[in-house]
Every structure is written in C-alpha cells, then in structure tokens.
Amino acid sequence: MTPSDIRHALHQHPGISGQEQYAHDLIANELSSCHPDQLHTHVGGYGIIAIWGTVPTNLTIAMRCDIDALPIGHRCGHDGHATILLQVAHWLGDNFHDSDHNVILVFQPEEETGTGAEKIIKANILQQYKVVAVFGFHNLPGFPLGTVVLNRGTFAAASSGIIYNLKGRATHASTPEKGINPGLAVAEIIREFDKLNSLPDQTGDNFRQSTLICVRLGDETFGTSAGEAEIMYTLRAFSNNTIHQLIAQANNIVALTAAQHHLTVESTIRDPFSATVNHARLVERLQKVATKAGIPVEYKEGPFRWSEDFGRYLAMFPGAMFGIGSGEDQPELHHPEYDFPDQLIGPATQFVTTVICDFCEITTMVDQ
Predict the structure, then answer these.
(1) 170 lies in the same domain as 152
(2) Which of 49, 64, 207, 217 could pair with 40 in a Cys bridge, judged by C-beta atoms 3.0 to 4.6 Å apart?
(3) β-strand partners of 269
(4) At 112, is the pLDDT very low, low, confident or very high (cuts 50, 70, 90)?
(5) Which ranges of the chain would DSSP assign to H, the alpha helix?
(6) Domains in the chain: how many in total?
(7) Is residue 235 exposed (0-12), middle (13-18) or buried (19+ Cβ within 10 Å)?
(8) pTM (2 decimals)?
(9) Neighbours of 57 (CB within 10 A)
(10) In this structure, are 61 and 190 located in the same domain?
C-alpha cells in the first residue's frame, strides 16, 4: 500500500478510543514487513510497539503516534500520524542495521480520552529499555505545511472533564414548594464558574479556563417540578498544580451551592490530561536537527490550550512534543471539515527519520 492508500484506509475505518481494531490490524500487518526485532501487539488494548535493536541497555529513542478517531471520524489527523510512523518503520526496516542504539515506535490507542498513554506505560515495555528521549508529534492547522513547531516549556495544557450530579426532590409542578428543584443552584454554579476564567491572554500558572459543556435539568414533563440536574465542565490550566487547584475550587463552589439549596451532589472526573511539559535540551536538539536539514522551524508563544496525553510519557522519560504545520488555510482540529493532507506525509516522515539519524550519533545521555 502507498502512504496515501494507508492514510485513506485508516480514514475510512475510524475507530474511537477503545475500538481501534481496524487500525491495529492494518498497522500490525504493515509492520511485519518492516523487520522489527520485536513486535508487541494488543498493548494496552489496541496499541502496538515495534522495536529495532536487541540490547535493552543501549541508548534508546522512542517515537509515539496516536491512532484513535473522534466520534465524528478522523478529524484530528491521527490517521496521518499513524501513516507517518509506518513510513518511518519501513525506513528503519531498510536502513537500521547493527546499531548500538535502539529505536522504539509506539502506535498508541485512546489518546482522545486521555487513557492510552497510561495503558502503554502499564504494559512495562518501555521501562525495560534505557529510553533517553521520547518524542511525540501532532499536525497543526494554521501553520505552513511542513514547518516544525516547537515550545521549550509546556506544549499543551492540562485539562479535566468533570460531571456534577445534583439531586433534590421532584414534585408536582403545581406545588414546587414541596420539592427541591436544582434549577437555581445550576444557575448560580454557572455564574460562579464563569469567575474561574482568567483573561484569554494569561499564560503560565495564571491561565485558568472553565468551559460549560452540557446541562441537563429535569425531564420534558410539564406536570413535574425538576428534582435532578447534571452539569458538565471542562477545566484547563497550563500546569499540573494549577489544574489540581482549579478542580478543588470548582468542587468547593458546587459543594457550597448544593448545601445552600439542600441538594446532594456527586462528581465524576472524565478524560483527565496532565500538562505536556517539554524537556528544554531536547527541544533545542530538535531545532538543530531541523535547521541542519533545511526544515523551517517556528516557536510557539505560550502553550496550546488543547490537551494531549503525551504528558504521561514525559513524567517518566525526558522528551518533547512537537508540531508539524499542516497548512495555513485548513479548518481547525476537530472541525467536521478537517482532513489530514496527504502532502504532509513526506515532509513529516523526513523530519522524524532525520531526528532518529541524529540521535543515533549521540554517545552520551541527555541531561535529565
């Protein structure tokens, strides 16, 4: 299959988080012809880890891509990411011989829900190698095609979905005083959560964001005063400490408001992501590699507000996440009309393989 054929096949068979079987089987089949020294399938569900190199104590570089789709399909470009890493695998199969380094390629499921990286790590495969650099990448609409986008600090925000279930007491609509309707509490919570937001141009630990996702109150029954409500928010910050503080503040607001209105409350965390904090020395190395290869580089001012579970790897290993521009006139990620451009596959593959070549000439570990 050509790179375009692979990308289109993945695009036409999107698997949401936890349902990536088609992608798993296609990727595993392609990898089998790339002659890895080890091939681990069904890692943490539908993840795959391919390894070139046979001595775990040798210096090891890892490259990770994500393979899951959104409920609206591959509107984030993970089909393109997987295709790029498969082209890297074919390059390794043809060119990686008798090296004193190891190269690990990780095809990770369940990124969109923030659970996939943790499952890969819990498989305890990466920990068996001397991983001195782990890299992840993401295509970025709004940047020139093929431009490498770097950030020395936090690349992507920490975030967490949170669901609050408020319970009062339903009653007949003609006697609302006999029940406990959570409507006013919901209105107060929404107003108070709006106060949690920092100004849009705030950076670092000063950035805080609460986004109302969904509200459900009562039922379409005009003879009944509502007795239950559900509120969903996504909270964001640029550091792990700040997101924990923000969640605590949010929980306190809901608890106090619920108590004032004689409601009980239960909360559930959904899709938690830690901040993706890059290792500065490795970011500098990426810049040098790109510049030497004549690949344009652009530094991002401040973190991206969206989240990535790649931060889980960075909590264990030195590494960095970088972006690759997919075109200045493209719709944003997760837009229904977004589609990964096939013309990005070649430049992105070139950069990733160039990074691997550069790394394999390193003889000392990067400062951690």
Answers:
(1) no
(2) 49
(3) 162
(4) very high
(5) 3-12, 21-31, 78-95, 116-122, 183-194, 240-260, 280-292, 311-314, 345-359
(6) 2
(7) buried
(8) 0.91
(9) 9
(10) no
Q: How confident is the model at residue 205 (pLDDT cuts 50, 70, 90)?
A: confident
Range 345-348 contact pairs with CB under 8 angstroms and sequence separation of 24 or more? 345/3, 345/4, 345/7, 345/80, 345/83, 345/84, 345/87, 346/3, 347/145, 347/146, 347/295, 348/80, 348/84, 348/137, 348/139, 348/146, 348/324
pLDDT at 366: 36
Distance CA 308, CA 319 (A): 14
Q: 135 and 22, same structural domain?
A: yes
Residue at 366 is within a domain: no
Q: Which residue has the tokens 């408020």?
A: 166
Radius of gyration for the alpha carbons in the chain, expressed in angstroms and rounded: 23
Confidence of residue 98 (pLDDT cuts 50, 70, 90): confident
User: Looking at the domain assignment, is residue 196 inside a domain?
Assistant: yes
Instruction: Tell whether the model's pLDDT for residue 236 goes beyond 80.
Output: yes
Distance CA 187, CA 184 (A): 5
User: Given this model, what pLDDT does residue 362 score?
Assistant: 39
Domain boundary among 218, 240, 273: 273
Q: Are strands 264-273 and 276-277 parallel, antiparallel or unpaired?
A: unpaired
Q: What is the pLDDT of residues 11-64, one digit of tens each?
A: 999 999 999 999 999 999 999 999 999 999 999 999 999 999 999 999 999 999
Is residue 261 within 8 A of residue 182, CB to CB? The reply is yes
For residues 334 and 351, membership in a common domain is answered with: yes
Q: Considering the domain boundaries, does residue 364 fall inside one? A: no
- Supply φ then ψ for residue 173, to 5 degrees: -65, -20
User: Buried b vs exposed e over 276-309: b needs ≥16 C-beta within 10 Å?
Assistant: bbbbeebbebbbebbeeeebeeeebeebbebbbb
Q: Which of 86, 80, 4 is nearest to 330 (CA)?
A: 80
Asked whether the beta carbons of 159 and 236 are under 8 A apart, the reply is yes
Are 35 and 85 in the same domain?
yes
Task: Verify that 16 and 136 share a domain, yes or no.
Answer: yes
What is the domain extent for residue 190? 158-273
